Each structure stands twice: as C-alpha cells, then as structure tokens.
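step 4 of 6: structure.
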Amino acid sequence: MKTLYAAVLISSIGALAFNSASAQQTAAPQEDPAMKIYRETTPKINDLVHTKLDVRFDYKKRYMYGKEWVTLKPHFYATDSLHLDAQGMDIKNVSIVKAGKNTPLKFTYDSLTIAIKLDRVYHNNESYTVYIDYTSKPNELKAHGSAAITDAKGLYFINPDGTEKDKPTQIWTQGETQSSSAWFPTIDKPNQKTTDEISMTVPKKYVTLSNGRLASQKLNADGTRTDTWKMELPHSPYLFMMAVGDFKITKDTWKGKEVSYYLEPKYAPYARDIFGFTPEVIDFYSKTLGVDYPWNKYSQIVVRDYVSGAMENTSATLHGDYVQATKRELIDAYYSQGRSTIVHELFHQWFGDYVTAESWSNLTVNESFADFSETLWAEHKYGKDAGDAHINGDRQQYLSQPNLKTKDLVRFHYTDKEEVFDAVTYQKGGSILYMLRNYLGNAAFYKGLNIYLKTNAFKNGEAHQLRLAMEEASGRDLNWFFNQWYFGAGHPILNITYKWDDATKTQTVYLNQTQDGNVFILPLAIDVYAGGKMDRRKFWMRNKVDSLVFHSATKPSLVNVDGDKMLLAKKTDNKSLDEFVFQYFNAPLYLDRFEAITAAAKQQSNAGARKVIIAALNDKYYELQIKAIKAADMTNDDVRNAAQPILVKLAQTDPNTLVRAAAISVLGKLKASGLSNLFKESLKSQSYAVQGAALTALSQLNPADAVALAKTYEKDSEGALTQAILMVYATGGTDAQYDYVYNAFNEGAPQTQFNIMSKFAEFTGRVSDPAKAQKGIKAIADFGVKYKKYGIAPQVVQILNGVKESRAKLNDTASVAAIDKAVAELK
Ligand SMILES: [Zn+2]
C-alpha cells in the first residue's frame, strides 16, 4: 500500500519549515498502556484452504448479498470449532457441506466474529467446507460502535445512486489491513493464505475485475451478468479485491501473460502513457530477483475516492485517481509520485503477495522492499543519480520526523496496527535495504532476495527469514546489522571533523556519534583525494568516538567520509568551502554534488562557491540543475552576470521541461522587459510547467495584463499552469475571479489546496462580497479539520486570523464571527 496523502502533507508541512508542534502532540509512547502489549503473530488453529464467493450488490441500500463456501483444515491440533472474522454483517445461515448437502451448524455472532461449533472434531489431515449465507453492510459498520471498527469499510459504493454529477458509479474494495472481513467472513490475518473463486453478478453494462483469471461470463435474463474470477494460487485475505464500474480496458502482455489497464473511458486514450512501462518493469524485476512475475496476469485499475494512494491486491493493483493524467500532463511527470507508486505496487507482487509479512509487526518485509524498489527502478531507468536522489529523499523524509526515532523497524509494540504504516517502515526501511545492498554487494544482495523468495514462496516471512537468506547468500553473519537496524530504533547522529598536521604529514578524521543510546556499527568507505588521485580506505566505526589517522605525502584536497553516500544518518560534515568546491568537481555521486551545492549556496560572495553554482546550472542531473537554479543569488552582480545568459539558454533549449520552468521562474523575478518575448514564446510550450512559469513571469512584468491573459488559458490548464492562473487571480483578481479560485481550492487535491491556501486566504480577505468571503472561510476551516491529524491546525488558525484582520478592516462582522467559530473548532 502507498499512503499518499500523509506523505504529501507531511512533506508540505516540512517544506514550510512548520515547527514540530505536530510531532510533540503525540503522547510519549511509554505512557500508552497499549504499548506494553506484545503483538504476537495470530495463532493458527484453522488454516484457510479455498474461498468461494457468490455475490451481488444492492446499490440502493449499499448492501452486498453473499454466499460463501469456505474450505479449511486444522493447522496442527484437532479442533471442533472455527472462528471467522466478519464485520457488521447479517449472518443468515451457517452450515457444514457434505456430499453437496448443507447441514446447519450452531454459531454465535457478536458483529465481529462468528464462533462456529463444527459437527465433529477435525484433524489436520482432513479439510471441511462451511457454507455461509450473509449480507455485508459496509456503510452501517460504524453503527456497531466497536473500537475495532474504524472507517475502514472494506467495500465501497461510489456514487451508487448516480446523483453526483461528473462522478461515475463504482464499487471497489480495500482489504489492508483487516477490512476484507467486512465483505466476506474469513480469518482476516496476513498469516493465512487461500485460493479463491469469486462470482459477481452486476448490471451488464459494467466491467468487473478481481484477482486471477476471468474464468467465465454469463448473461442473465434479468439484465445482469455473472463474472467468475479464479485465483488458483494461494494469497492472503487482505489481498482479495473486487471492482465494478464503467472502465475501458487496454491490454499489453509480458511473456504471454495479460498486462492490462482499467481506466475511466475519458482517460483510456492515455492508458499506455500512464501505465505503458509496466511490462518493462515486470521484466526488470523478474530478472533482478531471479523469480519470474508469479501471477497469471497483472491488472491495474484507477478508481474514484480511493482512501489511500494505491493497493497491491494480488494480480490486480488498485490506484487512486491521482495517477490519471493526460499525455500533456505526463510531459512534466518524469519520476513523479504517480510513477514511483506504479513500480512500488508492482514490486509488492513479490514482496507482500508472493511472500507476505506474517504480521503487521513485520510489515517491513512488505513495505520497506516496495519503497526500495522505487529507487531500484529509478537507477535502472534513469541512471544512478536518479536512484541516489530518490533514496536520499526517503532518508530526509524519515529524518524530518523526529518523533519516529523511538520506533523499531520490526514493531512488536504499537497502539494501533495502522501506525506501522509510517516513514520508519517505508522510507527508513528502504534506506536500510540500500545500505545492506551496499555492504553485501549487488550480486550477493539479489541472491539473498532470491533465496528469501524461493524459500518462503506462497508463505509468510519476517525479518529473521530475510537475515537467514542474506547470510546464506553472502556467507556473512548479519546479526549486528539486523539487531541495530531492524530490531532497534533511531539512527546515528554523526559529527565529522578533520585535522591536517603539516609537520608530520598526518591526516586525522574524527568521527563522533552523538545520539542517545547505543553506538551504531558502521562500515564506512573513506575516500582520500591527494596528489591527483583517489585512495579508498575501508573503516569500521564501532565506538561512539572513533578516529582514523593516516599519512599523506601532500595535504589531501578532500577526505570524503561515506564515499558511497549510503549512510542513513543525520550528518554534520565539517568540511571547508574549498573542500566542498573540490568535491563538486571531483567526487562522482549525486549526493557529493548535492552537498557541495548546498554549501556553496550559502557563500556566494566567494569565487569558488560561485564557480560551483554556475557549473551546477548545467549539472548532468536535472534535479541538481534545478537546485542550483533556485539557489543562484541573482542579487549578487557576479552571480547574475554569469548566470543570466545560461538561464536564458536553459529556458529556451533545455530538454527537461522542469529545468526550463525553473529557469523561467528565476528570470521572471528579474522583471526585465527584454525577456518578455522569451516568456511569451514559452507560453506556447506543450508543458504545463513551462507555461505556468511563463505566465507567472509575465505577471511580474505586467500585473494588469496578467489577469486577462490567464483567462485565455483557463480551459486547457492543468498542474503548474492552473497553479499559476490561480496565483495571478488570487494576487490581482477581483470578485469576478473569486469563484474560480474558490472552486480550485475547495475541490482540489490536498497538495493543490496546500499550495494555494495562503494566496486563497489573502483573496478571501480582500474580496468585496461577504458571502464569497464566508464560503472561502468555511473551505479553509474544513481543510484544517480534515488534515488536523497531520498537525496542520495551528497553521490554518494563523491563516484564518490573517483573513479576520482583513475582514475586520472591511467592517464585515459576519465573516469575523465565522472565523472566530472556525478557529474555536480547530483548537
Ligand atoms: Zn506499499
């Protein structure tokens, strides 16, 4: 699973340097009694063997009528009873099936579990089949008021009455973590695996999708159709899926297996633009892992109102509609979150679906791998710099959340299982795998993955099995690594200082780990650049304070600790500016150059620093170009004189649209009328990013014309261009433009809402019609309430208070009162 909104908002909050109030709001974990509970793996009393479902839907009532034949066998000990998870259902009949005959069984049901007394004692060499006739009522789950049931409905009816304009009618499911039992009785635990067969009876105008193969389709006399899907290899109940709706299917293949994309008809023309690289990724992962894609087909479907980012249902991944995009939007996508999510869910088909985390405590063997796979694809497809940039983004995402430093990667203690889906399990776990690969070497690491997959195929895995597989492949003991990274918490806080003694020609490197708690054992590569060549020294840091001393004929130009730039640590590297300048031009990696640009950006009065910034405008990796473009201090005459002609060239000819857009943005701020033709030309680009930057640049030259100009682009705008139009309106618009901005905010994706919130608030303060102001205030307050759990409330309160000041000046007492009420609710 990929939880999209949380990641987006957390990074947005971080980007605004918002204080850590959100982190502090969480109670200290040791105070929570739930943290004392050891979350054991669920004991296996009965094992699922086969699950057969026959379902039809009541769109009006939002019910699903189900018949189930579930086959089980005792795991080891003989038993005469069976407990099935079943959330908020009506259970009409429970019977044992023998020779095609149903005999009713005694059972009790408390809205969460069906406790069934079997007809006799069964041993683990025999299986039995139970028939259940039930009604699933996902929209009424909350009414049961159980603490165990949150808003995880399992089965979702989207616009079932067709009353919402511009929204299709759909049904889809979401199983993870334990919501499949809201639509069929099962043992809803990841350490169960079952084959399945699902027959869905639906209005014949709709398409269906489920796990496995479409075995049959049958038209019924009443205008419905029954589709039967069969999954003939075992998988866990949380990976079951169904989807029903008006989707257009586009088909590709990989090694004769169907690879298909289910999209709303409007986006079907772009199916291959969005998903077309899927067979290439399947091929790459199959070869890298030495295990071919294990399922009979791979489908991806995009649905409305999805509750998360995307979900890796076995052979049938479900995406939220953020992944939908037109060909033009995709021009600026590069390795966007949508594209990395596509590869993330695909890697889960091995790590998650083929071998499944045995419990939520061990979620790392699903999610850390899926996270790591995003980097793997980036470096394969876009080069080492792109991979390094991606994994560095992961590290920073984890390190920017200080409340996570007490959380173990393998998490035996938690308040709620949903908490395990955090940046420790995803981004930190991915970074740890990146370190492990570096330590073992690629070949041994991939051999280890191959052993792990083959040993545990169609079964479950935990971190210990991963360690054993890696040890078997490499021949090295890895307890030290797993103890500190998997079964421990936190990360090193590393301070690095250097001393050169010219008299003795001695270089000393002082390494100091300053975090609380245990020392981290760190195998380090230390690259020494002296006398025109580079020497690599291997060093194991085993103490909190360590130093490395060596002789050098001449003073090294650079000592580069962690030469492979693979360390997950908060690092303070006390290099001189000269050393960073040398590093930019001589050390090879993305992070070497990234660190040098960061250091140079702060000291642009220095000639060496300027050399780095100017050179980096043409760095071979586009994200570093953009970093340098944004960092260039255009108020410094030397920087501007050198940078401007380069930026003009980049704006006109760089093959990367995001580089062009960044260059135009910086040039726009110069407000130089001589550049207006460049901006006007750029407005003709197919790239929304380039157009958006150009419109903003023109608005800075002539704010009066910009509102009219923006209007001509309203109809064909997406992404950065929409953003620019909104900014132009919010800054210089009148009441006539207010509703356009209001709608964009009110109906926008969270990221859009976050981006335009402060400008929208300014506009709301200024607009003359109090009724418009009040609906704007409500929209901002609703946003604050919706994302309060991410710590956004104080920021929204601050913004609303700004609006209040402006409305007060306009003597708009009604709006002032509305703000007071909203602020009280947010506190
Ligand atoms: Zn995932």
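step 5 of 6: annotate
 - The pocket of zinc ion is lined by residues 1-2, 344, 348, 367, 370 (CB under 6 Å).
 - Residues 10-27, 144-150 have pLDDT under 50 and may be disordered.
step 6 of 6: archive
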